[in-house]
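tmp note - Cytochrome P450 family 4 subfamily B member 1
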Amino acid sequence: MNSTLSFAWFQGDVSGLLQVSFLLGLGLLVLKVAQLYVRRQRLLRDCQSFPGPPAHWLYGNVLEFPVEEELRKMVSLAEKFPCAFPRWFSGFWNLFQVYDPEYIKMILSKRDPKSHDVYKFLVPWIGKGLLVLNGSVWSWHRRLLTPAFHNDILKPYVGLMADSARVMLDKWEKLSYQPRSLEIFEHISLMTLDSLMKSAFSQQSNCQIDRRSNSYIQAVRELAYLLTSRMRNVFRHNDVLYWFSSSGRRARQAAQRAHQYTDQVIQMRRQQLKQEGGLEAISRKRHLDFLDILLCAKTESGETLSDEELRAEVDTFMFEGHDTTASGISWLLYALATHPEHQQKCREEIRGVLGDGTSITWDHLGQLPYTTMCIKEALRLYPPVPSIGRDIKETITFPDGRVLRAGNSVSLHIYALHHNPRVWPDPEVFDPLRFSPENLNLQHAYAFLPFSAGSRNCIGQKFAMNEMKVVLALTLLSFELKPDTTKPPVPISNLVLRSQNGIHLWLKRLH
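out:
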């Protein structure tokens, strides 16, 4: 009898617990639905002044932006909706797409933080470095790192960049005899990584010869793909769910491979500093580099970067210093391959300054005005970073009277800005004279932003521009470039501007 009563009480307890759990879960669900409803109503109210393409109440505009069509779609919508429009990634999250120079100027002048809902996904990979930091911590890191990009530091890099470019061009000479076009992006990625290791980290990596270095390149490529896919899909934003997904597992493994590479770089330099007696002793033997300055930088109060902060900055510069530059160089070579008249004018100018190219120095780079104009026009058509994000902390009233309320997030869409016919007449035409001295004064200061602008502009833009000039000069002295018309590139945005099917060129050796 007692056991029967005990079992009945047990059944009653379990049943009660299940009922309470059900009611609690139902209550949380109702609360979440109410939060989403309130959020959606606020977003709809804030979007009233900014018409855009119709969006589904649940999945927004997701189906309208397939990866291979995304950039083309953005350009067409920028023509239809002046200045900005909301792009919905779900019924409850959107990003205002901004592509008007005056709008962008007002946003960048506010020093708003990077968009948390976008950049937080990069943290497991590149940590909290200069790219994702905000506020006073960002200002401190920027001050610490600025000396690493002084002209006196950058000047010796030119010869090292040339050495890396020549290794790549020697490989291309052998491959140019094959009866097929060459996919250049991977070759250029290895070359820019090699150049970065030699200059910013003073290491002879031999990564263009040693195929094991491809693991880092492949890890970066996989991370770029996975993280961009995650940003676009609101159902992958939850960290717990993403952790247990197959994509989350792949992202962790790729980040681990990337970290192994950068950890090795840091460890080798620490040992070198210890063995050679510190920064002063090393400075008597060779140029100081990015990592030297990073390891020894101190604030006025004597603070240095923690190990976590140090690795974040190395991971950040390792990614940005090779991948964005590789994108810029690859698209530059494609642009000149498709415009042979400009390619030849650059080649003639380069020959006039460099001769056969056996020697190239810092001073030579300032004597190539037409080549520089072609580089800038290629960066306009193919910006290495297609968009950047900001969270709006203070309400902004734009010159046309429209108001963007605090609490919204924006994507400053550089690709759409650079292809905006209201900003650039005939934007799809490759015209280097847009950047001639007489035309520069006619441009809006925020019409050309391959390296962003304002206080948070790219700290490494001189480094990147110098490398683009060096590689282009040596390449055009060695080869005539032609596009493979059977494999036209398909531009896609995967953190940096890539081609979905690679960038294929024919190389003709010049004698």
